[in-house]
Amino acid sequence: MSKIYQPLLLLLLVLITSCSTEDISSQNDTNPDISTEINYNSIDLEIIQLINSHREDLGLSKLNLLDIASLEAKAHSEYMIDQGQPSHDFFFLRQQNLQVTVNAIHVSENVAYGYTTAQTVFNAWLNSDLHKQNLEQSSLSDIGVYSDVDSSGKRYYTNIFLKR
């Protein structure tokens, strides 16, 4: 091996061995944007109850509340608040994350904003064919839910539906 490549090899070796999982986890602890805990508010819990009651009325199975899907929903609701408008931006990333982390076979989502109660947002989804189809799919197994308000008090909602 030539003397020119030896310093490069040594530098590469130092770089590879200098990273550790401990360093990475300590970085995550100090980053306020990375959260592994979900706190459901009363509107979120009522949305789940309304959806599951509706599904039972149709003879469909209840959906299990899945925290990891709610974390994806939380990140998206916060993104929509930052953008100041509802969207399905980057849905493919949420879908891929859930396919990898929980082996989701199918992922869909409903979003909304501006509704002040669980009942009013639920009614809006029922009055929209595509949103209604998402929550009435017979093969679904799980749901992730998150809503939050922006600085002006407008609430943003994200529901993520899964089949595993």
UniProtKB/TrEMBL annotation:
It comes from Mesoflavibacter zeaxanthinifaciens subsp. sabulilitoris. Pfam families: CAP (PF00188). Gene3D superfamilies: CAP (3.40.33.10). It comes from the Bacteria. This is CAP domain-containing protein. Residues 1-21 form the signal peptide. Residues 49-157 form the SCP domain. InterPro entries: CAP_dom (IPR014044), CAP_sf (IPR035940). Transmembrane segments: none annotated. Keywords: Signal.
